C-alpha cells in the first residue's frame, strides 16, 4: 500500500509539473501573440524588447510633470514591423528610441502608428522623441482602405522631436494634429526630418496637417528639414489659426507651406530651395517674414477667395524682411467660384538678389496686382493661374542682407 501511495504521489507530481510547463508555455505564447498593455505611473520606465511583430502597445495611466512615464526602445532602437502600433491615452508619457519599418495597420482599428489621445478623450503633455518611420514597399495609389497616419494627436502641449520620416506612400499625412476650439492646443513638431516621399495621384499625403478649419491651434513647427518631398501640393497644410512655421528648410520639394483654412499664422526664418510652390496663402492676418525664397518657379502664391468658395479672401498680409533669389513672381490661383483678388498685401524691406542686390519697392501689393495685367496659364486641373512679375527695384549694398545671403549660400553648398 505504501509503495502504491508513493507511486501515486510521484505520478501526481509529474502530472502537476507537466501542467505547469504546459501552462507556462500557453502563457508565454499568449503574451507573444496578444497586445501589450502598459499601465503608466510617474517616474517609471518600461523597456521594450529589441523587436516586435504584429503587436499593438496600449498605454494607459499617466506620468507627472516632474516624473514622466517612459517607454524606451531596447539598446539602439526597438523595431516594430507589420500590424503594429502604439496608442497613448494618458498624460506625461514619453516614447523614445522606436523604429517603425514597413508597417500596415487596419485604419478601422488603429488610425496611426503612434496615436496620442482619441476622438473622445484627449491626451496631453506627451513626447515622441528619437523615433524613425520608414516604408519601402508599395500601396495602391487611390486606396482608402490602406490609409493611416504615422502620428496623430488629440490633445494639448504634445511634442514630436528629433524624429525621421521617410518614404510614406499610402494616403493620409505623416503627422496630423487635431485642433478643437479657440483656446489653443500648443502642440510642437521640432528638429525632425521628412524625406523621400513620391507624388501620388490621390494626394492627401502632407508631411504635417494642422486641424480641419474653425479652430485655433497655436501649433509650432520649428527647425525641421524637408528633403525631396512630393506627396502633396501642401507639404505643411495649416487649417487652423495661430500656426507658427519657423526655422525650417525645404529642399527640392514640390511645395512648402500652405495657409489653407486659418488666419493669423506666421511663416518666419525659413529657407525654400528649389521648392516649386514655397508659400501659398488664403485668409487674413498672416506674417511672412525673414525667409529666403530660392525657387525657379514661383515665390509667393495667393488664392482668390470669396463667399461660397472653399478659400477665404486674402487680406491684411505682412510680407517683410525676406530675400528672393533669382526673381520675384507673385502668383494668384483661382478655383471654382472664387473671384476676390488679394488685398492688403503690405510688402516692406524685402530684397531681390540676381546679379546684384536690389531693394523691392514697398507698398500694398494687393493694390499693385489690381492694377496689373497678369500672365495667364491654362491648367488641366481647372484651376486658373495668374502670374504678376514685379519689376520695381532699386540697387542697394545692404551689408546685413549680403551677410544673410552669404550664410544661406554656404549652407546650401554644404547640404
TrEMBL record:
It comes from the Bacteria. NCBIfam families: para_beta_helix. The lineage of its organism: Bacteria, Pseudomonadati, Bacteroidota, Sphingobacteriia, Sphingobacteriales. This is Right handed beta helix domain-containing protein. InterPro entries: Para_beta_helix_rpt-2, PbH1, Pectin_lyas_fold, Pectin_lyase_fold/virulence, PL-6. Pfam families: Chondroitinas_B.
Amino acid at each position: 500500500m505504501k509503495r502504491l501511495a508513493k507511486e501515486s504521489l510521484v505520478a501526481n507530481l509529474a502530472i502537476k509539473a507537466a501542467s505547469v510547463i504546459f501552462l507556462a508555455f500557453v502563457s508565454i505564447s499568449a503574451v507573444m501573440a496578444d497586445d501589450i498593455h502598459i499601465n503608466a505611473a510617474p517616474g517609471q520606465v518600461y523597456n521594450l524588447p529589441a523587436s516586435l511583430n504584429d503587436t499593438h502597445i496600449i498605454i494607459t495611466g499617466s506620468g507627472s510633470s516632474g516624473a514622466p512615464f517612459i517607454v524606451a526602445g531596447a539598446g539602439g532602437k526597438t523595431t516594430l514591423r507589420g500590424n503594429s502600433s502604439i496608442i497613448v491615452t494618458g498624460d506625461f508619457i514619453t516614447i523614445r528610441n522606436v523604429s517603425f519599418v514597413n508597417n500596415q495597420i487596419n485604419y478601422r482599428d488603429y488610425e496611426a502608428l503612434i496615436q496620442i489621445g482619441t476622438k473622445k478623450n484627449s491626451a496631453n503633455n506627451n513626447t515622441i522623441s528619437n523615433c524613425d518611420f520608414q516604408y519601402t514597399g508599395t500601396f495602391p495609389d487611390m486606396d482608402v482602405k490602406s490609409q493611416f497616419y504615422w502620428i496623430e494627436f488629440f490633445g494639448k502641449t504634445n511634442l514630436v522631436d528629433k524624429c525621421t520620416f521617410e518614404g510614406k506612400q499610402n494616403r493620409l499625412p505623416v503627422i496630423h494634429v487635431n485642433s478643437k476650439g479657440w483656446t489653443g492646443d500648443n502642440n510642437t513638431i521640432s528638429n525632425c526630418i521628412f524625406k523621400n516621399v513620391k507624388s501620388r495621384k490621390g494626394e492627401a499625403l502632407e508631411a504635417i496637417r494642422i486641424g480641419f478649419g474653425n479652430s485655433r491651434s497655436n501649433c509650432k513647427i520649428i527647425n525641421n528639414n524637408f528633403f525631396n518631398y512630393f506627396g502633396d501640393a501642401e507639404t505643411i497644410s495649416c487649417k487652423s489659426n495661430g500656426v507658427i512655421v519657423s526655422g525650417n528648410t525645404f529642399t527640392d520639394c514640390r511645395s512648402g507651406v500652405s495657409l489653407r483654412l486659418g488666419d493669423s499664422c506666421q511663416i518666419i526664418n525659413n529657407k525654400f530651395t528649389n521648392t516649386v510652390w514655397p508659400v501659398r496663402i488664403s485668409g487674413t492676418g498672416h506674417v511672412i517674414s525673414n525667409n529666403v525664397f530660392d525657387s525657379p518657379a514661383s515665390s509667393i502664391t495667393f488664392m482668390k477667395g470669396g463667399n461660397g468658395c472653399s478659400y477665404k479672401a486674402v487680406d491684411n498680409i505682412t510680407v517683410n524682411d525676406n530675400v528672393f533669389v533669382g526673381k520675384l513672381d507673385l502668383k494668384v490661383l483661382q478655383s471654382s467660384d472664387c473671384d476676390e483678388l488679394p488685398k492688403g498685401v503690405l510688402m516692406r524691406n524685402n530684397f531681390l538678389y540676381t546679379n546684384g542686390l536690389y531693394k523691392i519697392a514697398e507698398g500694398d501689393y494687393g493694390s499693385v496686382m489690381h492694377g496689373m495685367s497678369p500672365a495667364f496659364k491654362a491648367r488641366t486641373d481647372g484651376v486658373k493661374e495668374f502670374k504678376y512679375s514685379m519689376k520695381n527695384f532699386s540697387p542697394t549694398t545692404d551689408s546685413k542682407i549680403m551677410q544673410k545671403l552669404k550664410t544661406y549660400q554656404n549652407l546650401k553648398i554644404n547640404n
